[in-house]
C-alpha cells in the first residue's frame, strides 16, 4: 500500500493483479487499484478532477485525465473518506502509476492532492 498526504487530504492505494491474456495484437495485463481518499484536515474539500501518468515496463507513458472519479466528485468534510476501485490495462507484466486529484475548497482555493507512485505487477513476473 502507498500513502500520500497533501493539505489534509490523505490518499491510500492498494493494488492487485487481476490477470492477463494473449490477444492477437499482444499481451494484456489487467490490474485493479482501490483508492481511499480521506480528509484529515480541518476544512472541506471536493475532488473535481483526476490526472494520472501510467508507465509500462518499457518506459512508455500514457496520460489520463478527466472529471471526478468513477462518475463522482465527492465532497469530503473533515473526518470523511471516499473509496473506489478502478483498473488499468498494460501491455507489460508490470508498471507504475502516479498522479494527482484537483481539489477545491468552499472558499474558492484549489490545490493538487498528490498521489505517489504505486506499482502494478503480476506477482508471477520477474521484475
From TrEMBL:
Superkingdom per UniProt: Bacteria
Protein's UniProt name: Protein ApaG
Name of the coding gene: apaG
PROSITE patterns in the cross-refs: APAG
Alphabetical list of SUPFAM superfamilies matching this protein: ApaG-like
Domain ApaG: 3-127
